[in-house]
Amino acid sequence: MAPNIAVILTDANRRILWVNEDFTSITGYTLSDALGKKPGSLLQGPGSEQDAIGRIRKGLDNMAPIKDEITNYRKNGEAYQCKLVIHPVFNQQQELINFIAFEIDGDKDDDVEIPLLQLNEKYSSSSLKGVEEVRLFMRLEALLRQDKLYLNPNLSLKTMADKLHTNTKYLSQVVNHHAGMNFQQFINTHRIREAKEKIVSEDYSNLTLFGIALQCGFKNKSTFYKVFKEATGLTPKEYLKQRH
């Protein structure tokens, strides 16, 4: 299940214009509590890491995308680990008009990462469709991690779209947008990660390298070797030798 994703929209001066319901669920602050305040003054406290504050400020000052973690505080005073991504938003004249932040509670979703978006066009503050893209991508990642669907050599875009109750066109666009690759390449990254773990595990020492590849969802030996070399810079045999 995808985590709650808090969304914060500020003006160019970093004062809050809007927050979503997930923001209230995570922090306890409502829109009326947050309106007009700066996120840092609202959420940071005595345990907020100064180096993280510095990195975030530097990114904001440079009007650059930021991905970081920091200790924030809920309305009731409880500290929590916040994983965040912040993007500057520009109009067609390339003038800064907003910042938009996506945040999750790292204490509850420690193994979840928020992908950086590529906001090539003006972000629409009226629709905020980006959060739905983030949700779908994170649901995809969660499903792959939990059920290891990538081990199925016949896994298709259509099968995955059906499991996520979406369509193939949208799922393909989301993978391309957030992972920077097509669906097959994305699935192969999960297969390669699994293969790297199995190659160095004593539990699979009785298998050949291609035998391991078959267990990780690859059907073709040449494809496995090609994808492995592209991902690691090494052949599977070289990778095994290096790790040992």
> Could you tell me how far the N terminus lies from the C terminus, measured between alpha carbons in angstroms?
37 Å
Helix content: 40-55%
CATH architecture of the largest domain: 2-Layer Sandwich
CATH class of the largest domain: Alpha Beta
Number of strands: 5
Secondary structure blueprint with pairings:
Layout: E1 6-11, E2 16-19, H1 21-27, H2 31-34, H3 39-43, H4 50-61, E3 66-73, E4 79-90, E5 96-105, H5 130-147, H6 157-163, H7 168-179, H8 183-199, H9 209-215, H10 221-232, H11 236-243
Antiparallel strand pairs: 1-2, 1-5, 3-4, 4-5
Helix pairs in contact: 5-7, 8-9
Question: Care to give the gist of this entry?
Answer:
This protein is of the alpha+beta class and 244 residues long.
Summary tags:
244 residues, alpha+beta, Beta-Lactamase, Arc Repressor Mutant, subunit A, 2 domains, five-stranded antiparallel beta sheet, 11 helices, 45% helix, 16% strand, elongated
Descriptive account of the structure:
This protein is α+β, with helices and mostly antiparallel strands. α8 crosses α9. It has two domains: 6-120, 2-Layer Sandwich (Beta-Lactamase), CATH 3.30.450.20; 141-243, Homeodomain-like (Arc Repressor Mutant, subunit A). A hairpin with a 5-residue loop joins β4 and β5 (96-105). The radius of gyration is 21 Å and the shape is elongated. The chain contains eleven helices and five strands, in the order ββααααβββααααααα. Helices cover 45% and strands 16% of the residues. The protein has helices at residues 21-27, 31-34, 39-43, 50-61, 130-147, 157-163, 168-179, 183-199, 209-215, 221-232, 236-243, and strands spanning 6-11, 16-19, 66-73, 79-90, 96-105.
